[in-house]
Amino acid sequence: xxxITAKGARAPIETAWDALAWADPSPAGAVDAKEDGRLAWxxxxxxxxxxxxxxxxxxxxxxxxxLIARIEELQDRDWVTLSLEGLPPVEAGPFIVAGSHALxxxxxxxxxxxxEAGPAFGTGHHGTxxxxxxxxxxxxxxxxxGKVLDLGTGSGVLAIAAMKAGxxxxxGTDIDFDSxxxxxxxxxxxxxSGFTALHITxxxxxxxxxxxPYDTVFANILMKPLIGLAPTIAPLTAPGGTIILSGLxxxxxxxxxxxxxxxxLSFQHRIKKDGWSTLVFRKPG
Length: 285
Prior knowledge:
The chain has 285 residues and is α/β, with parallel strands linked by helices. It has helices spanning 10-22, 50-63, 79-85, 100-103, 127-142, 157-164, 177-189, 206-211, 223-236, 253-261; strands at residues 2-8, 30-35, 41-47, 70-73, 90-92, 95-98, 111-114, 147-151, 169-174, 195-199, 214-220, 237-249, 266-273, 276-282. It is found in: Cytoplasm.
């Protein structure tokens, strides 16, 4: 495996991130951008082959010529085990997300969610997941969480947290088979019943429509898919329901906010965490 790293100002890093994330197909298996100190940002991408890594460098250089991207070959090691060893518990309001290595040492009175590091996105450490968990805490303080729809469920962390916080039921969807498998396994590990992860693209399917309307909807994915889902998410949401959207760099929040406001949804506020934005909407009624 190869890691491609570039450091610089926020604007060129975000431009390069956009270029890599939206390349079709993208040579990168995973891409992340985050703050790396005061006024400094860092872009990381991961590839299986050197050829893909070199293609990533070309895309980064073309999108942001001021950045210098470096390739590092990663040794063939058990990265899951290593990440577990250094992965501390994450707290977001009343929620604490951790692997089994750390969950036993957590504070009493917290809503504990067991998520091991693995192939599915969502260990709680990413700014998008943190933002969604904080928004979920606001929901539970105001009303019953009710029925949950989690689009792009990944590890299932958000749906599982919602169930452990009192949700009536939850459906998670993902386009990745491994994520669906991991999410269902995580539900079992957390002794959660009433949650099912499904391999589904989009949200306008009979299975999703029949399960609605939903009182709380998560969509922690990317800007363009979120905009495309706005016409589908709005009717799936129950009157008075909450929609929590993430997977957005700060500059991407505007177009998503406009797309959902155009569907008659009321924007509530934005949560900013580690360079990422989470948008919270309410459906009138």
